[in-house]
Write a structure and sequence with these properties.
Blueprint (H helix, E strand, L loop, with lengths): L2 H11 L4 H8 L10 H13 L6 H4 L18 E3 L10 H14 L2 E4 L5 E6 L4 H10 L12 E6 L13 H12 L8 E6 L13 E6 L2 E2 L5 H11 L6 H7 L3 H9 L7 H13 L4 H7 L1 H5 L16 E4 L2 E4 L9 E2 L12 E7 H4 L7 E7 L2 E8 L3 E6 L1 E2 L4 E2 L5 E5 L2 E5 L6 E3 L11 E2 L2 E2 L1 E4 L2 E6 L2 H8 L1 H4 L5 H4 L24
Amino acid sequence: MSRQDLLAVVKVKKLSDFRTIMDTIGERGSQGCEICKPAIGSVLAGLHNEHVMLPKHHGNQDTNDKFMANIQRNGSFSVVPRMAGGEVKPEQLVAIGQIASDYGLYTKITGGQRIDMFGAKKPDLPDIWARLHQVGLESGQAYGKSLRTVKSCVGSTWCRFGVGDSVGLAIDLENRYRGVRAPHKFKGGVSGCVRECAEAQSKDFGLIATDKGWNMVRILDRYIMFYIRTAEHLQRTAPWVESFDGGLAKLQRILIDDELGICADLEAEMASLVDSYEDEWKKAVQDPLVRSKFRQFVNTPERREAVEIVAERGQNRAADWPKEFPSQKFTLASLPPKSEWKWVPLAAVSDLAPNNENTTSAAVRYGDSQLAIFHVPHKGYYATQQMCPHKRAFVLDHGIIGDKNGELYVSCPLHKRNFKLDNGDCINDGDYSVLAFEVRSEGGKLLVRLPPADELDMVIGTSKWMVRKDTAKEMGGIAATAVGGCGGDGCGNPKLEW
């Protein structure tokens, strides 16, 4: 089923959550997969614009939407406040600088005229956003398949060549479409004259001022809404236009001439999305239940780094990954016999907030080892090690739960290695496997059957697998491409890990 067909069925049948959609038009009782869950999440967001961390939606969110921040390779996150049109006040710049300094964040100006702060720990995200809210900064939705930015030049505000207020219009457009979820991210640009300093023609939508005014403003609502309705999941606007039956000429007849008689509907649907906007992070900061989801471990306030932080050009960043990690299969053979294992209470049932609408998960610490615990509606509780061995990333509790032929698995949020919850086997890459553990619920507590902590630490302890400054050197080079000439098999190699 195409995304367009899925959206149409969901809309006509008035379906509003993953479980109902699967039971109505999918496989009843199925947990879906790492592909269909985000697609369904995208459709629901494009129709209803509900908060992505509601229990019925949270399990559908992939990688970045899961915690409303872009996950980085060391398991930390980036923070990107909205700076509509690239405009920012001095006191807001001061606040950003102070926050970055206080939390040791790496800062960089983005191509969309805003500031990105890298290296934020998950437990710190609510407090960081609370401080940003105090100076009037809101979520930039850099994590979502949604509007990112509307870039602008300074236009007639300052430029001697400007014939239009490009900053003002960019701010109006960005504030209008902020938070609107689409099949993929989309960006805009507004140039104050035909010199085109904002590069509006290279964006998903763009406007250029002339002495006769602005072009295309009145049909943007229709264009974006029709894109949401008809594009495939993860399809950007350019390939959507290129593949559209009838091409650009047909789109012009639909969106300008109203050939299909749907323009009023498109405008009304966009108005509904615009009117339902809320700053997702503001709501998250104010909701204690949502804030509780940002703990690194639910059984201790202690934190654990999984990648060494190094200094570069006066800022902190994560140590390099090696070009390749060796394959790694964790098995029970490396542990004491199960007769020596014990049931260990590691979390409260309430820590996972189990429900019948979607899956939930949390990470716990046991000695120096990290574990991920999952709840699957009508199936029960499962646990695995927290580290995905593909890149030594301690992130499996962030992964989407799916099932294949009735076998449940967790999909690593970084590079989609899928590990079975019952035995840890990787179903799409035989070079890897993880440890899986039994879990039971007893008296409001979750107990995991485990070997002694020191024995488990020798196998999956964080210190043992931490990526350090010297790791890449020891394993033969870093993953990043060095600046220099082409040579060997590197250039034009179609098989890229990234």
